[in-house]
Amino acid sequence: MQIIAHRGASGEYPENTLLAIEQATVQGADAVEIDVFAVQGELIVIHDHHLARTTNGTGSIYQYSLAKLMQLDAGQGQRIPTLWQVLELTHNKCWLNIELKGDDTVAPLLALLNKAEQQLGFDLESLVISSFNHHLLSAIKQQQPQLRLGALTASLPLDYAAFASTLQAYSVHCDVSFINQAFVDDAKARDLKVFVYTVDQPDDIQRLKAYGVDGIFSNFPARSRKLSNKK
Ligand code: G3P
Ligand code: CA
Asked: Where's the GP-PDE domain (predicted)?
């Protein structure tokens, strides 16, 4: 079962910062998950469009210039990273799940990935692009069909397999509160990987391992790795 560091090693370091992401790779996470918005065409890594929870700023990211956003403290002296910085950091270290939060993210993402392929030799197969907004995923599938897509679900939709199949998704990403064995079996029969968020409790880790899920998003990747290796 793969361990995906949720917003980096966010249980111990400020979420979605280069520090949290680097620490996740040091702790041996298989992958890192990050959240992305677009501001003036630049992709930045932050979970909320409101700044107050994770930075010393207030209001919405859309009220500020990129230069001003880059000056904010995102915890422990960290800045809000750009997606480009995260691609540089994770390149050749672990796979990366980019969760699209903003609805204007597709065009800048495809342009940035093209640049990363050219300039860094970035392996696009080391990416999974996910979103709760399946319209964004559909737009990516039309423009760049080889990219791996993760269909995020907030609950347990009746038609989850239909949208995942229509998207030709690589994976479904499910909430730990709703997942069950039947869901996992059905997804696997459809050749979909199953990744579950957000999983830090020992009993959940054992239960999901028994279901045979492919990976879990954890805020504490090192601890979750140990727990998942336990018999
Ligand atoms: O991608 C899994 C999980 O991160 C989705 O929920 O709110 O933590 O972005 P959220
Ligand atoms: Ca997320």
From this structure: 1-228
